[in-house]
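Hi W., the glyoxylic acid complex you wanted:
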Amino acid sequence: MPAIDPERLLSDLRHLRSIGAQDRGVVRPAFSAADMEARRWLKKRYEETGLESTIDGVGNVLGRSRNPGKALLVGSHSDTQPTGGWLDGALGVIYGLEVVRALAADDATRTLAVDAVSFQDEESRFVGCLGSRSLTGTLSPEVEQGAVDNGGVRLADALREAGLAGVPRLRLEAARYAGFVEAHIEQGPDLEDTGRKIGVVSSIVGLRGIRFVFRGQQNHAGTTMMARRRDAATTLYELAHRINQEFPKAAGERTVWTMGRLRVTPNATSIVPGYADLDLQFRDASDAPLDACERIVARLVAEINARGGVSIEATPSRTPIPPTRMDAGLQEHIARAAERHAPGKWQHMPSGAFHDAGFIAASLPSAMLFIPSIGGISHDFAEDSRDEDIVLGCQVLADAAASILAAANAAPGVQ
Ligand code: GLV
Ligand code: MN
Ligand code: MN
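Structure:
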């Protein structure tokens, strides 16, 4: 079986961390100068490894193996949240690079084909999983044209600034691949809490988003009596509170919802706000609780609007992500490799975060492997994992990749 090089793996991960490093975390949002620097560095790294490498017109970096036969696509994303951790996405990207190197260095696996990838904008600066959507042909022109970040920058302008306007976009060659495997930090506490080292992902959550716009009447905070007010912020607080009261009645065990972005205008202490907006995001591994939450929102909005004070407009804030099951055959390969390297210390588990694998799964058999996150913290500068867990996860992935490819190339179509 191929052996990864722990020092080489950790040193490349730390190098990627240094691009956009801030505090203990990383600020490398999609298309920023740091993001594009990291993508150019990766392209060079892929080439040094013997891959044929391209940065496509949305910023995806793909390194293609020159070996014949069915290939395995391995990778994740190298963009980060506005204030992100150093491993979210980066771990799976550098694992991809290391798996290519490990298989190439072993006589038994050197002819197997592994392509490495870093997708663009998984973290939703413009469109969540922009790169994997573009690659799989599921990025609609309307979504792309309407894409604007939180600061009002249009996607088209960010592409031009990053030097990507007019650069050809890759399309996934589905027939080339036996499948896609994405490794990732868990970003939650389950592996650490149960003392396990590897998660074999069974499904990825679905996600929906609703944007509420509240319109009232801006006015003086001293002279406007409470009964006369049409205060957009107060209606926002009321709706948010009622969502928090009502959703638990419809929620499944792992349904989660977040109201993590809001704006109150003009945001001044002595002004009754005339305008506010709020984003609600909710997730579950099946559609039924998400449908039920949507019905609750419709009822609450209709009830508040019927009072005739502040009006609420509710529209989808993003293209929904459907819940996705991971490929059973690929999970089996990962589970066997996990049992070899961490006997009894691995588990099947759902993913509460969404991932590019959720989009690639529509075109290719796809699977994911998780390693523990210290304290279950992610999307924060404090995000971290133990070196020994990082090394173990990569070794499991390398073994799984070799066995997936050996099976796919021995009997095409069989995994
Ligand atoms: C992806 O980063 C997510 O928010 O799940
Ligand atoms: Mn991620
Ligand atoms: Mn993330």
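Residues 6-204+323-410 form a domain with the Aminopeptidase fold (CATH 3.40.630.10).

W.
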